[in-house]
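User: I'm curious whether this sequence folds into something compact or stays loose and floppy. Could you predict its structure so I can see for myself?
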Amino acid sequence: MKKLTEGNLYKNFILFAIPIVLSGLLSQGYTIINTIIAGKFLGNDGLSAVGSCSSLVTFISSIFWGYSAGYSIYVAKLFGAGDNKELKKVVCNNIAAIFSVTIFVSAVVILFRNQILDFLKVDESIRSQAAVYMTTIFCGLCLATVNTSCVFVMQAIGLSTFPFVMSAISAVTTIIGNVFTVTVLEWGVFGIAISSIAASVIVSICYGIKIKKCFAELGVEKHRVSFDIKVFKESFPYSVPTMLQQMVMYFATLLIAPMVNAIGSAATASYVVVQKVYDLNAGVYQNSAKSVSNYTAQSVGARRFKNLKKGVKVGFIQGVVLLSPMLLGCVFFAEPVCKLFFPKNGGAEALEYSLIFSRIYLPFIYINVINNLFHAFFRGTASMKLLFTSTAIGAVSRLIFTALFVEKFAMSGVFIGWVISWAVEAVFAVAMYLSGRWKKNIKGYSLQQ
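Assistant: Here's the prediction. I'll summarize afterward.
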């Protein structure tokens, strides 16, 4: 375990961020390979079936991702303050709650899957495959959300290497499972989904063992924990706003999915590829920014307020530097990268859409580095209203501009709306940071200035 507030800031940030970034790349890597397998072996129909409901899976997952990201900031604050008994209570109660609620949500989705597919305007030619994939994925979503929560807990207490190892194990297991179930057993999209669940089972066991060891190192292994509603009252100010932030952001993506699906199956297949290329790049600066959120929260817990602005500066430099190699590779080698997802001599229209995004619109992602940086900072300072408002502005503007441009420019309209939303949100986020409104959420800040 590591307190980021102690020692050289640049060294702490980079040593903390590199395993997280690599872990994120591994996670993106095996989801990309899943998509490649779907495209290469199952064709455009298989790729479209996976992609047609991926926005729903992402939306539901984002709710629990946001919740975990939020309460883990409270965990980092407790860790910085040395309150280990409360830390264990918060972790155990929240993980149990996430597991239970995910099971309920998944059951509802499976029960109403036909209505959901209608809402998403899934093409009849791929509807049955989409239903199979969605049903199977949601059967194992409870394990995936718990694993995500464990990742954030590890990072909150300064551990970034273990999540990287878990990502590696998950990646290898999923890839091997996909190749076997799709090419040997010929299970189609069901094989892709079931491989992800198998990997989640293995990783869940490993996280359970690791968290138990962490509690032992913190001296609270034998400290008994029971359900306590007071725990949620303390962590909700961190977890709920972040959860709502993620819901707003990905609900916009969910509402855009029918617009994309209505263009045609080629657009749906392309959007899967575009999302993967975007996620591969975004994952770099998003994971890099976790240094900022955890450093900020630990600094607040330790009452070292003078270092907060320096953390933002270092976090921005680190995000840009780490992103640039990946971004330049995807832009200059757009064609070979995008062609990985499509069968040979197939998917020409979908490929063209993907190349347009990668070559023209993807470079604007540097704007989103700014947004994510301040997401992390606002989260770390518990400035949840600023976090939520910033995200809402970005999400609403994306919906508005996509709706305005999609009819005239088709997929290019979707991309234009995306880029404009980044710019609108960035202006707001920078303005709020410079205004200093986040200082009001830190008790005792003014006394040290």
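Summary: The chain has one domain: 9-442. Residues 85 and 223 are 7 Å apart (CA to CA).
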